[in-house]
Amino acid sequence: MSLTKGFLRPKTAINRNRVITGIILGTAFSFGLNGLFYYLRESLRLLTSEYGERLLIILTPQENFYYNLFYGAIASIIGFYVFIKFVFENSIARRNPKLKLRQRHILNEQCFFSWLFLFAFGKTVSIIGLWYLTISTQFDISYLKEFWILFVLIPLVLFLNIWSSILRLTGKRGYKYMLYSFLYISVLSLLYGKMNLNDYQQMDDNIKKKSVVLSYCINEPQSQSHNRIYRISLATDLYIINDSTIFWKDALTGIRLDEISDYVNSEKKGLYERERDELLVNLHIDKNVKLSFVNKIKLELRKSKIDKILYSTGLKNSIYPSYYSPYKNWGIGQNLYPHYDQILIDFLDSAEQIDFSKYTIRLPKSPMYRINSLGEYNRIEIRISEVEALLNKQKTSKDRLKLFVSKFIGKYSPNFVIIYTPSSDITYGRYIEYLDLLHTEIDKLRNDLSLEIFGIPFENGGWNPEFDSIRSRYPKNILEWTNEEKRLLELINKSR
Fold first, then answer.
1. Fold (topology level) of 378-476
2. Per residue in 435-450, pLDDT tens?
3. 134 CB burial (10 A radius; 0-12, 13-18, 19+)
4. CA Rg, the chain, in Å?
5. What angle do CA 376, 434, 369 make, to 5 degrees?
6. Per-residue H/E/C for 322-372
7. Residue 199 above 60 pLDDT?
8. How far is CA 435 from CA 126, 388, 462, in A?
């Protein structure tokens, strides 16, 4: 009999009777570990709807599969290590102390590495999960798109590290088993990738039913100018999806137009009496809603004695969508002035029956309308239709309008008024487009003056009382006629 190379080396004696038991044990361990990964991931994901700025992380079926596949691969490889540890510890001859010592050294080394990996992996994933519970970062980073290579390398390195030690025990014969184990782990990982331990889509749907933003694709307009709500406790949300669908706070509370006053009054009852007049309504409106319907909403709010509203808008030229949760309390503010007065309405109803060929109307000064007081100010009028913009009845472009408004305010401020008259048949998005233009030009003048006086932009310190002088120098005197004032103007024109 010829001698073969390495005949003096101790051979690894694997007990085949324990291999099947090891496979069952390793597979069961991987299934349990995969379940732990799955439920921890789902728990953190679902909690973002309550804590992560209340914006649920929604996974597409493809994204869900890739994440399942990744965690399944990690669990399968750790399960394979359990299989190796069980088989080798119970298969090597006890009478060979040298081989047993080497086997124990290699298995202890792998045990340390596996637990160290699980510790680092768990800590990293937990920190990322807690990060999502603090702020919604799914719009800032996409792990699958930007770091897809890590989802491949991490399981591969973990697998090869285990085999680099095993090959020291098995020699070249181990490469065949390495291929078998790779195929088994791949199949098991694919199985875990397609396996969902709960109906995650149904759970998402249950959360969506409560959220207007998640249930309906509200495409809010974007703006460059922004005000921020600083007292969230004194603000309530009103969602306008289309010309007939309104929600109060959430998707479970659909209301009619004539019910707005009831809900506003109910909201005020929950506040201290001294704070009731400070209630602000945050309007989330799809940009395709007709302005005529928005005006009806504003009329109902005026009837409810709401003084302030905020048009919630996304940030122009931002990577974030308009429904990004931090934008919820950002937008363009507006005062609903003057208050609604039924006495004035009754007067208008009577005055509109007058024969103006015999009579004229002379209006006394009143806080219920602002027509007479305009004579004290330098003013321009901007009319907006769906196809054109008019500046003092002359057609103009947006760039020319910006330049004129900036020069006009710079020359006459604070003794100026811009009369903004949008046509009621335009969309809400077009209305915000030109309203934002006017606010932005005033913001620029404020920033320039703030840099000159304080050395910082106005937007960085506008909350400070020291900046009140800048507000007084460049007030946002943008006037929109109420329905009553429009009727008064018509009566005056008829009278003349």
1. Nucleotidyltransferase; domain 5 (3.30.420)
2. 999 999 999 999 999 9
3. exposed
4. 35
5. 35
6. CCCHHHHHEEEEEECCCCCCHHHHHHHHHHCCCCCCCCCCCCCCCCCCCCH
7. yes
8. 44, 15, 20
